[in-house]
Write a structure and sequence with these properties.
flat, three-stranded antiparallel sheet, 112 residues, alpha+beta
């Protein structure tokens, strides 16, 4: 079982078109240079996407049972059960998140 009181909401999905774009975002992600190189070289015909995720804290941890459907090499899985997000709290203020979001989107455009 995994326990977490953090949830994320994808606000933007942007196709990464070049290594230069990833280099410009170096301080905004956790990927290492070798991993980025591997991903760009692994299947160049499959695009790489950048997901901007708005983080929230839930008032209490939520237990998620591991199921066979969650197993394997997957980046995202739909949860089998609904989770109430009514009392979620923002990790960054709306203004700060929007500033960071716009800065990232601008970097993506300027290095495309």
């Amino acid at each position: 079982m995994n326990r977490s009181n953090v949830m994320g909401e994808v606000t933007d999905i942007v196709q990464v078109q070049s290594r230069a774009q990833m280099d410009a975002l170096d301080d905004q992600h956790i990927w290492t240079s070798p991993l980025i190189d591997m991903r760009f070289n692994y299947r160049p015909e499959n695009p790489l996407y950048l997901l901007l995720v708005r983080a929230y804290m839930l008032p209490e941890p939520r237990m998620i049972a591991s199921t066979p459907a969650y197993a394997g090499c997957k980046s995202w899985v739909p949860l089998d059960e609904e989770t109430s997000i009514a009392r979620r709290m923002t990790v960054l203020s709306p203004e700060l998140y929007e500033q960071r979001r716009q800065a990232i989107l601008s970097l993506m455009k300027s290095t495309a």
